[in-house]
Amino acid sequence: MKSKVVLLVASIVFSTTAFAQKEELKTLKKIYAKEKISDSDMELYKTTLTAAEPLVAGSNEDDKVYFAYYKGVAPILELTSALLNPEKNADPMLSSKILSVDKVNQFVAVANETRAYEKKTGKEVYTKEINQKVIFLKSIMVNYAVALSNIPNFKDASIVLAAIYYLDNNDLEKLYYAANYAVNSKDYNLSLTYYQLLKDKNYTGEGEAFYALNIKTQKEESFNTKAERDLFIKAKTHEKPRDEKLASKRPEIFKNIALIYVELGKSAEAKAAIQEARKENPNDVALILTEADLFLKEKDMVSYKRLIVEALEKNPSNADLVFNLGVISYNNKELVDAEKYYLKAIEVDPNYINAYLNLAILKLDAEKILIEKMNKLGTSAPEMKKYDVFKKQREDVYKSAIPYLKKVTELDSENIEAIKTLIGVYNALEMFDEAKVLKAQLKK
């Protein structure tokens, strides 16, 4: 008899708990379904979540899934309610005050779990509504990500943008910008994850961008579609529509994957990524230069020079490439080639300061050898004759450097080292008047 009483009590307790649990879920469902949720509704919603959580722990899968959804969507409901309130909506930091990265991630998780559960059971309750909320939330989450980046908090901004992709797998553009933000935060593993996803999904970013000038602010704004922009043009809030073709971002994605591998010290993976990219884009000079940079980091100057030459063949008017070949040749003691490339860089760009500077350095390098020879000579008549020959050669070296040093000082009047070097050359040649002018320039 006693055992029956215990069982009866346990049954009553269980029934009461189950009843309470159902009532709590009904309350949450009722508030969730409201078109406009008041502050008092939101407070009741939050207290009901707290009360229902321990009751749902031992419940069935259906109750657990929907309770998790009600809990995860709470910040979104609060934000939606606030946006409908004119007083709160005026706050530019509203999204930042209500949302957080954890709350965004929680909503992503429960939204996807709920959609997956409804697909599995074949009973659609909230799937369409979740999809509509995602559309509504996108612009809010983008603005929130921008606000985070302005702090700057690039990592959280990256996670928020990626969350949009995880809610809508078709929105690869947000994942692309999430990857860029992750690079800015120097979280290379996170950015690599995003870039690999973009690569696997064959994202190119090609298309058209649509712009128009906001008449009130006089700032150009972008629109998702031409039709959307046309509505603003017809409303006469915008003018001067402009379309822009968007080039493929795929080479950049491959390039960034390679550079990230370099940052992570994974040279083999970086080279493989570049080779894969170059198969798709054999004429992309940027990819060739990225591969060249890999060899430069490894101090493989032979491979580096080979790739720079290849890049130069595709882009012969690039003064930087020609100059780099001059630097490589100089470092390899190939002075004739170095001078040839420096002069070629100047031919391409007559204002290329570093080419003039390096030519002056190259010319003045010959002085060291002459000084060594002069210091080894004795004081005999034959040796003094040799000394005079070397002295004349030294003067010729100085004279050969003057045009390049003068050009540097003309192009960059604040290049102190070039001015000081030229003063030294003038003094060595007993050109004291010229040296005096430059000294006055230094004082200024």
Give a quick set of tags describing it.
5% strand, disordered N terminus, single chain, three-stranded antiparallel beta sheet, 75% helix, 22 helices, mainly alpha, 444 residues, 3 strands
Summarize the structure.
The chain is built from 22 helices and three strands.
Helices and strands, with pairings:
Elements: H1 2-32, H2 39-56, H3 61-72, H4 74-83, H5 86-89, H6 94-98, H7 101-121, H8 127-149, H9 154-167, H10 172-184, H11 188-200, E1 207-214, E2 219-223, H12 226-234, E3 238-246, H13 250-263, H14 267-280, H15 285-297, H16 301-314, H17 319-331, H18 335-348, H19 353-376, H20 381-411, H21 416-428, H22 432-443
Antiparallel strand pairs: 1-2, 1-3
Helix pairs in contact: 1-2, 1-3, 2-3, 2-4, 3-7, 7-9, 8-9, 9-10, 10-11, 11-13, 13-14, 13-15, 14-15, 15-16, 16-17, 17-18, 18-19, 19-20, 20-21, 21-22
